[in-house]
């Protein structure tokens, strides 16, 4: 099912996500019966985490529940607990409605000199507020982009879940894999380890699911080779697939054998734009490392990448961390997240002919076979 995430719900099932929708519905049912549950939805960028989470409040089992939602950003306020404030802000509470230790958290303007710590008094005060809400209706807390969540808010959610076994509570968290750091990583690990937590790993759509999405856009005359091309170009990533289909419709492409070449061409443009979008705002050297990796190939070591990118080995390691968090490089290693991403990187961050000659020398000095060096450096031109 395609369309704006705010208007899309579970009235029709999300393509390829029936198991995940069932897990979220099960969490709602448990919460309504007075048993606390947590559902963690995690996966790479573009897999549909936000869309799944946005559908929770429209599910029929959410009727009569207090549903509070926060979407975290990378900018934290000096007072911390940003996600907690976003969750409770719609309730329009006053300082008299909460326990004293929680006042600096929810109303930082009243105590601008105080940066509340995630100590027992503060966490307990926020717990009391949540318990009061649950005395009248099941409580559903949805936190999207939790990889950007402040550590204090995640610690409170962990604190709340550990004391809510017999309370009507559902906590839903969505975050990108390998994007958590420091205190947030430790707090999320505690949440994931709890018995009440179910973890959903969102992966790419399979061929059948890609075909179902394509058929919604091109309901007539759909050729299997066209679906194959869409699956290859998008890697099964729902966000990339939707962008690809939108661009194909605008270009007037038909879903037949003649349209396959157009899918490949448009797909490269979509992927290149996606790579640039993910790397926007990152240091320039991160892009240079990505381009060097794309040109040298997965067999190249950190020293070779550093030499071509003009950075140190430590900066290569740092850039790899950024590229993993941006889902350009696979979370499990140092190769690209998908076969087509390498070409997309070179399209988005083209290397000069001088760089290609330097790359050949670097690979040769590293002892790579001459045939492999020549074939690898020419492969992008043949793509």
TrEMBL record:
PANTHER family: TESTICULAR SOLUBLE ADENYLYL CYCLASE, TRANSCRIPTIONAL ACTIVATOR DOMAIN. One of its GO terms (cellular component) is cytoplasm. It comes from Saccharopolyspora terrae. InterPro entries: AAA_16, P-loop_NTPase. It comes from the Bacteria. Residues 13-172 form the Orc1-like AAA ATPase domain. SUPFAM superfamilies: P-loop containing nucleoside triphosphate hydrolases. This is Orc1-like AAA ATPase domain-containing protein.
């Amino acid at each position: 099912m395609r369309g704006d995430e705010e208007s899309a719900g579970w009235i029709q099932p999300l393509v390829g996500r029936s198991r995940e929708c069932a897990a979220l519905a099960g969490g709602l049912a448990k919460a309504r019966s007075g048993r606390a549950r947590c559902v963690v939805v995690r996966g790479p960028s573009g897999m549909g985490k936000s869309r799944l989470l946005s559908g929770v409040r429209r599910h029929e089992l959410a009727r009569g529940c207090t549903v509070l939602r926060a979407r975290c950003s990378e900018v934290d306020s000096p007072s911390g607990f940003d996600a907690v404030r976003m969750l409770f802000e719609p309730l329009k509470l006053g300082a008299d409605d909460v326990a004293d230790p929680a006042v600096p958290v929810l109303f930082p303007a009243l105590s601008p000199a105080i940066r509340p710590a995630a100590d027992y008094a503060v966490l307990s005060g926020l717990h009391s507020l949540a318990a009061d809400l649950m005395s009248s209706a099941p409580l559903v807390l949805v936190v999207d982009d939790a990889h950007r969540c402040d550590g204090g808010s995640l610690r409170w959610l962990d604190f709340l879940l550990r004391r809510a076994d017999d309370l009507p509570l559902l906590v839903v968290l969505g975050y990108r894999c390998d994007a958590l750091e420091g205190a947030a990583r430790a707090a999320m690990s505690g949440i994931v380890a709890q018995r009440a937590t179910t973890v959903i790993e969102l992966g790419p759509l399979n061929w059948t699911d890609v075909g179902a999405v394509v058929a919604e856009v091109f309901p007539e005359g759909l050729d299997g080779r066209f679906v194959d091309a869409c699956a290859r170009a998008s890697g099964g990533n729902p966000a990339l697939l939707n962008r690809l289909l939108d661009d194909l419709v605008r270009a007037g492409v038909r879903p037949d054998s003649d349209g396959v070449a157009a899918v490949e061409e448009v797909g490269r443009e979509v992927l290149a734009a996606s790579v640039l979008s993910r790397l926007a705002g990152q240091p320039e050297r991160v892009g240079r490392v990505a381009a060097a990796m794309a040109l040298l190939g997965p067999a190249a070591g950190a020293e070779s990448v550093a030499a071509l990118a003009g950075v140190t080995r430590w900066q290569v390691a740092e850039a790899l961390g950024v590229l993993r968090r941006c889902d350009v490089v696979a979370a499990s290693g140092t190769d690209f997240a998908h076969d087509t991403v390498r070409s997309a990187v070179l399209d988005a961050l083209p290397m000069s002919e001088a760089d290609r000659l330097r790359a050949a020398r670097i690979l040769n000095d590293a002892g790579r076979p001459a045939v492999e060096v020549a074939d690898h450096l020419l492969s992008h031109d043949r793509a």
